[in-house]
Write a structure and sequence with these properties.
Elements: H1 3-13, E1 20-26, E2 29-34, E3 40-45, E4 49-50, H2 52-61, E5 67-70, E6 76-77, H3 79-87, E7 91-93, H4 95-104, H5 116-124, E8 128-135, E9 138-143, E10 148-154, H6 161-171, E11 176-179, H7 188-197, E12 200-202, H8 204-213
Parallel strand pairs: 3-5, 4-6, 5-7, 10-11, 11-12
Antiparallel strand pairs: 1-2, 2-3, 8-9, 9-10
Amino acid sequence: MNWQVKYALENINKKPFSRSIAEYVDGDVIKITTEEQPDVLAVISDALTITKDSAEAYLADNPQIDFICGYRKECVWQGEAIAFLQSKNVGWGNFGTLCSAANTGTANTAEHKVYKFAARLIHQYGIVESVHRELDRVFCVTLKNGCQVRVGMIPDYEPTADNIRSFWAEFGPVDIAWNINPNGEPSTTAKGAGDELGCKVLKNEGMKAYLQSL
């Protein structure tokens, strides 16, 4: 049994007051049983990146699965993989997303809980013509005036200059570093790093107004 499957089973079965129990099925697949909810077959992946090819391979090996879980905190999902899974009614996201979805019976439609709200919000701005999801945390947004911006989502509570520079180095240049954590606030040094790199560091409250200014 692979390490990530072992930890997923332990974490589900040892959760205090949990309504769910989990059992090993085969390979990287587990079954989660929750009171008054459908059973969930989930792949627990240790991949650092989930691509469309790897998502297709998981489904080819396990056509009945409901959810693919990227167990590593640093796991990155490619946009094509996300679109493929959504077209097949298979949920995707981190371990926390899987546990929440099992409890609510929404495994087949669930999406990464860290990025879910922001991903929906960007589509609701009237000035946005279209949104292409490049990665779980990167959108290429086309505005109705034809302007295109690349937006990177930063979930940290209080992003630092290092958070901004590291994101830029790993995922490429962005026009907006969007701090999607609703509670924190980007540090002054983070905003300074954004200015040096040529990107705006914004919270939810400033996103719409900035896009309207372009």
